[in-house]
Design a protein that fits this description.
1 helix, single chain, 3 domains, 332 residues, mainly beta
């Protein structure tokens, strides 16, 4: 990264601000306007990449309005690649000849810098995942340690600092399916199947169990990070519910819940032991019917619970359960 300071006196001319990048990568230019003698609130900086071999400046100038508050305002832009790149900086009105101002230009090579970050803001349900591939174009299954990266991720908080818009890239194009995500987070170990039923309770007894719901190929060892979330439709008149499950045709009671609760997270800790009833012993004519009991496999990453459904995609580095970004212009 290089810092260069330029003092210019004619606001209607331009200077070349040279930068050298031996790797030929793009660079991020950070411009800080320090006015000396006139109101800089209307300063506009025009940036464009230019190679010394070009006879004229390119047409794709990127105009950046520095701001409405004058001294110390900043602007940034990405300039093109080239071993000897240059930035054409033009300051447009207002200003009189002889009024001095200073431009500081910081160039940061766009190297691939791995960053770990936390997702902030609302729960993200629309993030796309890309699994790295090897040189043969096949999925890299080395202990399932392939790095998952996201494209066009916004609202990233890096090391507790300010929000940063990161753009990451990776090989592969298609998002993984839900089953592929499950297998990825099993670490190569085949998953298990889990079966569940739910009954409703009143003061007299218990209804027949709901239709069974089975989740296939879930994580083999459920805990706070990998668990089954059950939800069901309420039964009118019920004072509570009882959850049965885990092994198909051998379901046992796991938990008894009050009437205000119509969901349950199974982390494999609860166990009551009874089997589902064979008859309805309540005064309730209703029960949880087919289609009213739902089950979802859920994984937790960076303290945020994400649901595995068609609208949810996972972004993580498998081994560390963090997010691996490749971002430009960041101090890693």
């Amino acid at each position: 990264m290089g810092l260069k300071t330029y003092t210019m006196t004619n606001p209607n001319t331009y200077e070349w601000l040279d930068w050298v990048n031996d790797e030929g990568a793009k660079a991020l230019v950070d411009i800080n306007i320090l006015n000396r003698g006139f109101n800089s609130s209307r300063i506009i900086i025009a940036l464009a990449s230019k190679n010394r071999n070009m006879l004229k400046a390119p047409s794709n100038f990127q105009a950046i309005k520095v701001g409405d508050h004058g001294h110390g305002r900043r602007a940034a832009a990405v300039i093109g690649s080239g071993i000897n790149g240059a930035v054409d900086v033009r300051v447009k009105k207002p200003g009189l000849e002889g009024n001095e101002y200073t431009i500081e230009v910081i160039t940061t090579p766009l190297t691939d810098q791995p960053l770990t970050a936390n997702i902030i803001g609302e729960e993200s349900k629309d993030l796309r995942i890309i699994l790295a591939t090897n040189s043969d174009g096949l999925l890299d299954d080395e202990a399932n340690k392939a790095s998952l990266v996201a494209t066009a991720i916004e609202n990233i908080q890096i090391s507790g600092e300010q929000n940063f818009v990161a753009e990451a890239s990776g090989t592969g194009e298609e998002p993984l399916t839900i089953e592929e995500i499950k297998k990825l987070f099993h670490g190569g170990v085949e998953g298990k199947d889990y079966a569940y039923k739910v009954t409703a309770l009143d003061d007299s007894g218990e209804t027949l169990a709901s239709e069974i719901v089975i989740l296939t190929d879930c994580h083999p060892s459920m805990n706070d990070e990998y668990y089954i979330n059950l939800s069901w439709s309420p039964v009118i008149g019920a004072r509570g519910y009882k959850v049965y499950g885990r092994i198909e045709n051998s379901e046992v009671a796991l938990a008894e819940l009050d009437a205000n609760t119509t969901s349950y997270d199974d982390v494999m800790r609860d166990y009551l032991g009874e089997n589902p009833p064979w008859a309805n012993t309540t005064g309730l004519k209703s029960r949880i019917w087919e289609g009213e009991l739902n089950a979802r496999f859920i994984f937790e990453i960076i303290g945020r619970k994400l649901l595995l459904d068609e609208n949810t995609k996972l972004i993580a580095q498998v081994t560390e359960k963090d997010i691996d970004f490749t971002a430009f212009g960041a101090d890693a």
